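Q: Sequence in, structure out?
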Amino acid sequence: MFEVIEDDVKEYDLLHPCCRKEMYEFFYHNEENHSNCLDNINTNMREERPIIHPLNVFMNTQINSDGSISVEKPLSRAGDRLVLKVLMNVRIGISACSVSESKCNGEKCTAIKVIVEDS
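A: Exactly. Output:
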């Protein structure tokens, strides 16, 4: 589907599904009206998928020796890039993570910049 052209970080997460309202209630006790990736992507893609398995770009998930997983401080820094060449027709949903309560975003949500070029 894609060819990696440039990758500053080389460490991403494939374990976590998109966050959802129930996750905020379970982990942080603040479900009410919390923005989340599942709703953001479904709304913008005009779909109602119950689970989305994303490529969590720049997310640093560790598998611990006891088999548990933990989300750690990102390895990426401001300005790091992942450049992909699309090799076939694809439809992509993108959401900037809204979990300010964890180490996922360095405990501070920031915007992402996405550039789509036609070659």
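The mean pLDDT is 88.
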